[in-house]
Design brief:
The protein is mainly alpha-helical and 89 residues long. The protein has three helices and no strands. It has one domain. Helices cover 82% and strands 0% of the residues. It is elongated and about 45 Å long.
Length: 89
């Protein structure tokens, strides 16, 4: 499997985790927020682990049904994609 995929996933997950932390800080300080579509977009684009960890560590968006369903679903999907790439490529 190409090393570029691993670098991409590392970067997108760090960005996703950071986005959840920044959005939580902005929520507390009543500043402009990161759109929910952007936060969920990180999960869909491969940052699901970073999103999930950000949700848990920052206690952010954990009560929103869409986040409680979509982020874990994306995580399972990306684990499946990686498993396929590792074992069948």
């Amino acid at each position: 499997m190409n090393i570029t995929i691993w670098y991409y996933l590392l970067i997108i997950n760090v960005l996703a985790f950071g986005a959840y932390g920044i959005d939580k800080w902005k929520a507390k300080t009543k500043k402009w927020r990161i759109p929910e579509s952007t936060l969920l977009g990180f999960a869909a684009l491969g940052g699901a682990l970073g999103c999930f960890l950000g949700m848990q560590i920052f206690r952010h968006k954990t009560q929103h049904t869409s986040f409680r369903i979509i982020v874990p679903l994306c995580l399972v999907l990306w684990i499946g994609i990686l498993a396929y790439l590792i074992f069948f490529q």
